[in-house]
Specification:
Number of strands: 0
Largest sheet: none
Radius of gyration: 19 Å
Strand content: under 5%
Bound molecules: protoporphyrin IX containing FE
Order of helices and strands: HHHHHHHHH
Number of helices: 9
Length: about 210
Amino acid sequence: MAPAKLSPRAQSALVWAVYAVGLAPALWTFWLGASNQLGADPVKTFERFLGLWTIRFLILTLAITPLRDLGLFNGLRYRRALGLLAFYYAALHFLTYAVLDQTMVLSAIVADVVKRPFITFGMIALTLLVPLAVTSNNASIRRLGSRWSSLHRLVYPVAALGALHYSMAVKVLGAEQYIHIGLLVLLLAYRIARPRLMEAKRQKRRAAA
Ligand code: HEM
């Protein structure tokens, strides 16, 4: 049975729902922190939480294409919201680090970025996310034409750097880290293999016709 076609209004409401649901964990955890319910080190807990959700939204953004290729879910209309949510979480993660952890001492932040490789990788990933967030709108898609797709391929180095940053930030890798990093590696591997897989699919279809 073909899926029911949604009206443009319903489609736009669903996209807004993705933003609302996506931002809920940050708001909820911020509230827990503000009301002293985040344990002994609320700043670290909040910082880690935001980093983890950045990874989760990167995973969801990268999962849209393979799920569509496999015919499991066509979520193209949600991809922009998911990518922007990854950026919002990364920006909040950085702000928590800069404002609450490093108390906005710019020299300490710069020294940390230079000295600790995992912070360097995180900073590069966040910097690369900025042009993607700024151009995630219809006007930029029109203005940049085919260059838009090339620019947005930066999401792959962002995901690789995010995975590296994550694996270096945690002292001991456990199930949670293996699952998140494993999914990112799998999704990046799919992107590399995708052109060949698509070509094989086309040839099979041509042969059948
Ligand atoms: C796309 C960019 C980024 C992603 C995906 C990301 C993701 C993460 C993740 C998943 C963690 C570990 C959470 C956990 O322990 O469970 C983490 C930790 C951390 N990140 Fe990021 N991060 C990014 C950018 C940054 C930036 C720009 C900075 C600061 C300049 C930063 C600073 C930190 C710090 C200090 C920790 C360790 C907190 C601690 O345990 O002491 N991250 N990040």
